[in-house]
Amino acid sequence: MAHTLPQPRTVRAAAALRGTIAVPGDKSISHRSLMLSALAVGESRVEGLLEGEDVLATAAAMRAMGADIVRQDDGVWVIHGVGVGGPLQPETALDMGNSGTSTRLLMGLVASHPITATFIGDASLSKRPMGRVIEPLSQMGAEFQDTPGGRLPLMVRGISPAVPIRYTLPVASAQVKSAILLAGLNTPGETTVIEPIATRDHSERMLAGFGAELTVTPSPEGKVITIRGQAELKPQNIVVPGDPSSAAFWLVAGSIVPGADVTITNVGMNPTRTGIIEALKMMGADITELDARTVGGEPVADLRVRHAPLSAIEVPPELTPSMIDEYPVLFVAAAFATGTTIARGAEELRVKESDRITAMADALGACGVRCEEFEDGMAVTGTGGEPIPGGATIATLLDHRIAMSMTIAALNARDPITLDDAAPVATSYPIFFDTLEKLGAMA
Ligand code: S3P
């Protein structure tokens, strides 16, 4: 899954961006739909699955553990699951590529089964911290042999029966929460995760949809999420909504390119994911929500965005978890606003596919934008809507969101911006550049 040759790409300013586009399926929901279908008994069908490299890594891993997963010619994925308790010993190491979500959630799944699995990944994933899942999963009885610093490659020796735990998340992370809930699926009794700061709730929604006994109760310490283990999951037909994190690139592009008018259809509007829309609206973005509806248990809408002058904001810290993946592109929006935008309380950005604070400060800085890095965020001073200077070559650092964010920045730059490697885009948004072309911008 590693990319052998870098794919440099130069992006020029766009004359105008106009049209109606759809974004690919939600990455978080796609991973979970494959994992839970693979743990159900019988045939599940998934429509709108994101066919990006990260999700394909999850599919390969679930196949390696015995699930039958087939993509039909009509694009529907059909999965015959092995049942909770049924995953088989994988014969070779599980290659997670660039995907932290695949790694952390599958570490949880393996932890409570009597199998041993080795996880490997690319250079970016191999730098990311896994201690945050090793800690609670060790309390449940799983054993780990990790690379120093709690990193990949690592081996998980699962245990059955595992020990149910009650665990308060020390870091706001849907991946850690989901790893524990997945481990809890094959653990006798009740496994509880307490979440002081709410994060994306796709695991809870989908586990309940598959028939798991799961309760979510508010409490003074936060959301108390309890799963009763060793239940049977019933197969489902799932329709995956469009990914709001992918839509975010077009929301910013539409806001910063003069004359832009873009409609994005079928965007997931789960409130644990829509922080970027709130932040952009606070900045003055012209975003309208059309035809709000529910698809497969998730709220969905079409979004229309038109060019508008943006003003700097202080990003409200309470929005952080619901826009954690959107900071790189928010920094791009800030580069075109009037005034200095300040984001704080986002230290998690340092342990994503790259250190996204330094990566974006360096990238925007090289393009002539004034940025000040903080340990937990950044200040970006905007041009007031004028083009940024541009003209730099950007290190994308195996990080899809750095590559896409800087592509958007290039759409209103005086001189073209070159990505040293555009290949990482394929992890979450393989048709990103096709869509850019469809909107009238030639990359
Ligand atoms: C994800 C959770 C987030 C997010 C990632 C996907 C998920 O990570 O950044 O892209 O699907 O659970 P953390 O849980 O580490 O914040």
Automatic annotation (TrEMBL):
Keyword Transferase: yes
GO biological process, one term: amino acid biosynthetic process
Location within or outside the cell: Cytoplasm
One Pfam match: EPSP_synthase
Classification via Gene3D superfamilies: Enolpyruvate transferase domain (3.65.10.10)
Superkingdom to which the source organism belongs: Bacteria
Protein name from the UniProt record: 3-phosphoshikimate 1-carboxyvinyltransferase
Active-site residues, record numbering mapped to chain: 325 (proton acceptor)
Binding site for 3-phosphoshikimate: 27-28, 32, 173, 175, 325, 352
EC class of the enzyme, as a word: transferase
Lineage summary: Bacteria, Pseudomonadati, Pseudomonadota, Alphaproteobacteria, Sphingomonadales
Gene name for this UniProt entry: aroA
UniProt function note: Catalyzes the transfer of the enolpyruvyl moiety of phosphoenolpyruvate (PEP) to the 5-hydroxyl of shikimate-3-phosphate (S3P) to produce enolpyruvyl shikimate-3-phosphate and inorganic phosphate.
Reactions performed catalytically: 3-phosphoshikimate + phosphoenolpyruvate = 5-O-(1-carboxyvinyl)-3-phosphoshikimate + phosphate
Keywords from the named record: Amino-acid biosynthesis, Aromatic amino acid biosynthesis, Cytoplasm, Transferase
Quaternary state and interactors: Monomer.
Enzyme Commission number(s) of this protein: 2.5.1.19
Occurrences of domain Enolpyruvate transferase (ranges): 12-436
Positions of transmembrane segments: none
PROSITE patterns attached to this UniProt entry: EPSP_SYNTHASE_1, EPSP_SYNTHASE_2
Keyword Signal in record: no
GO MF term set: 3-phosphoshikimate 1-carboxyvinyltransferase activity
